[in-house]
Every structure is written in C-alpha cells, then in structure tokens.
Amino acid sequence: MLVSAAVCPHPPILVPAMAGEAAPELDALRAACDEAVRPLLGGDALIVVGGAPETRSYGPDAYATLQPYGLAWTSPDDPDNGAEALPLSLTVGRWLLDQHKTGAAARYLSVAFGASPAECLALGRELAESAGRVALLVMGDGSACRSEKAPGYLDERAGPYDGAVARALGDAAAAALAALDPGLSLEVQAAGRAAWQVLAGASGAGAGADEGGAGRFTGRLLADEAPYGVGYFVAGWSRAGQDG
C-alpha cells in the first residue's frame, strides 16, 4: 500500500558540484526536495521511479553516475565490475537519497517516456501492492518549452500544461495526473509525464469505482519553478490518517 510519495525534478544541475558557480540559484529547489524526501524514510519499501527510454527494474548493484554529464561522481564510489548505470532520472533520485544515507536501500525502476497511461497506471498499482508500506520517490521534469531560451524553445501551451500539473501535484489529484495527454506531453517536452502517471496508479487512479483515489492522500506543492525554461516541481503526498 502506498503511504507516501515525493515528486522531484531530475536536472543534473540539482547536484551542486555539477552546477558549479550557478549552484546557489537552485538552493531553494534543493531544500524543497530535501523536505519532500524526508517523510519517505522508514517504511517497508522505498522505490525510486523515473523516466527513461525503457521500462525496467535495476538490481541492487546498479550505480548512479554523472560522468556522462562531465562530473566524476558515482554512487557508490566504486561500483562492482559489470554493474549497470542508472539513467539520469534515477541517478538524481539516488543522489537525493544519498543526502539521507539511504540511497542503497531503495529499489530503482524506470518507466519508458512513451509508455501509455494505462501501462503507467498498472505499473503504479503493482508497485503499491509490492509491500505493506510503500514510499515512492517520483522523478520528473515539467515542460522544457517555457521560454525562448528553453531547450525546446517557447511553446505557448507549456505554461498552462505545467500549471495543471502543479495543481494536480499540490492537490494530490491522481485522476488529473492520470488524464495527462501523452501527445501534448511529448510536444511540450514534459519528461515527467509517465512517472507522474505511475504515481497516479499507485495512489488509486484507474482502480475502479474510486477512479481518482479522492481523499486518500493529502498533497503539498513545495516548489514550482522554471529558472531555465524547464518546469521543476517538488511535492509531497501522504496517505490521509497516516504519518507516512
């Protein structure tokens, strides 16, 4: 059963050593991530979910690395020979958990950027049923088309899209996340769509009579920023009536 979740973005520059002199620009975002992640600790299962080219799970020897982005950082420091590298979204998730000394204790699962909403919802339900008290760290960026200097240039639909996502995350509105359109999400380059829909499935969306899991969770939107033309959200969800 899902009892708590955190939603965080996954730009490499969230890691201060990666950002260099620009690191202070994201200090507030890092602090929000820390606040969101802290309640996840101490349950039966902690699972990190993030977008990647394919849907798959990673073994306990998988390691996080920012070497492809120019920073000589890995976690653990000395990976086993033959171990697999985590994709970027899960790498940044591992870094966030490492700040709490719990990175190695988590499970890591990627969801294909192009996975259908039905596939994402089903995967979320499967994860929620995998242990008695499940916590999810959901890694996903918003639209990369928020300004003319954004990676995807300016798309006038990006702001309203991200606004709807921010409201859904702040309200713990699983049904709204489940309803995100994959086509529009792709066009505005929202890398988090599939991962957010996994969260929606884990919290009860699409499960039958109570489609949205209404009232099951309370949400807090801790950050909603687009400093480089990319939407970055941080949110925390907790099951109503439980400490998470």
Overall description:
This protein is an alpha/beta fold and 244 residues long. The chain has one domain: LigB-like (Protocatechuate 4,5-dioxygenase, Chain B, 3-Layer(aba) Sandwich), CATH 3.40.830. It contains eight helices and nine strands. It has helices at 16-19, 27-37, 88-98, 117-128, 158-171, 174-178, 182-187, 193-202, and strands at 2-8, 45-52, 56-58, 64-65, 74-75, 107-112, 134-139, 217-225, 232-239. It has a seven-stranded mixed sheet, with helices on both faces. Strands 4-5 form a two-stranded antiparallel sheet. The model has no long low-confidence stretch (mean pLDDT 93).
Report the principal-axis shape: globular
How big a fraction of the residues is strand? 15-25%
Spatial order of strands in the largest sheet: 3-6-2-7-1-9-8
Number of helices, where a helix is a run of at least 4 consecutive DSSP H or I residues: 8
- Just give the CATH class: Alpha Beta
Give me the CATH superfamily: LigB-like
What is the element layout, followed by pairings?
Elements: E1 2-8, H1 16-19, H2 27-37, E2 45-52, E3 56-58, E4 64-65, E5 74-75, H3 88-98, E6 107-112, H4 117-128, E7 134-139, H5 158-171, H6 174-178, H7 182-187, H8 193-202, E8 217-225, E9 232-239
Parallel strand pairs: 1-7, 2-6, 2-7
Antiparallel strand pairs: 1-9, 3-6, 4-5, 8-9
